[in-house]
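User: Second chain of the day. Same drill as before.
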Amino acid sequence: MNIYEKPSHTNIKAIEKNFRTFILEKKHPCLMAKSVFKADNYHLKTYAEMNSSQTAKLLLEDLENYIVQYDFESNHFESFIAVFPNDSFEDEITFEKNLWHLLQLLHDHDDCAWDPAVSDDPNDSNFSFSIKGEAFYIIGLHPKSSRLARQSLHPTLVFNLHWQFEHLREMGSYSKVKKKIRKRDKKRQGSINPVLKDFGKDSETKQYSGRAVEKDWKCPFHTKSQLV
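Assistant: Same format as last time:
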């Protein structure tokens, strides 16, 4: 397959079916993910390869369209899911490097200012990744992940608007949902992901790839303002 050729409609349907099985039938601990899939409130797109400027441009356009159509007045949450069925990474570190390379490309092509509600410093505990002026929390999944909840069939990035988590807090549901998810994750894995921290307590960049990063790990991402 040409690196810029999208998977066929049939393959996309198979990928989507597999993802639904992974979330809804494999004891996945994330209740929010289950809710999103049960209600069909997700946008799943496939891309030829993660390590590509062309992919970054296409993904940025799709995310902008996703933001435009999002109903910020609703209590129903949505996720944007980017799947890379042609990619295969030998280990967690390789996946992590490609994840951050793609996020760097997304930022480099993004012509909008950083969401002022969050920090643009990846080392800051109030950092969240901004795309087209909206903050996102990003979840990386791939077959070689050490976390069962992250072991998707294909390398995948899930984009959740930061606004959704803040809205849960406003609704008084965030703490309850978080505790249930972590309890379910511990029951399935034997432990919760050691890098999980609440927003404002540590940089969420440590959570994106799903790998238990080292204590001295430094995020490779740089915003345009940091390079000036």
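Residues 143 and 151 are 5 Å apart (CA to CA).

User: Great, on to the next one.
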